[in-house]
Write a structure and sequence with these properties.
84 residues; mainly alpha; 4 helices; 2 strands
């Protein structure tokens, strides 16, 4: 975890997960993907250690919703197809 993560802590989860939260969570996971750097995996978007805060938040939202890994992969694939 980066020092900024230690200071800021985790992003709070919504009290209940809506369809809009799922959309935001999938977007967070697809934008904040891992990229290999000499010092190890970093977030492609913000260069923080991967998984970064937003990637972790997105994953926690989807986990809270009860989605399986297979369902999450399908949502990510659909997101990637719909991007121009």
């Amino acid at each position: 975890m980066d020092s900024i993560d230690e200071i800021l802590g985790e992003l709070p989860l919504p009290p209940y997960v809506t369809a809009e939260d799922i959309t935001f969570a999938v977007k967070a996971i697809t934008v904040h993907v891992s990229e290999q750097w000499p010092e190890g995996p970093r977030c492609r978007n913000d260069r923080a250690s991967h998984p970064c805060r937003l990637h972790r938040w997105g994953r926690r939202v989807l986990d809270q919703r009860g989605l399986t890994d297979r369902q999450i992969r399908r949502l990510i694939a659909e997101q990637n197809v719909s991007q121009p």
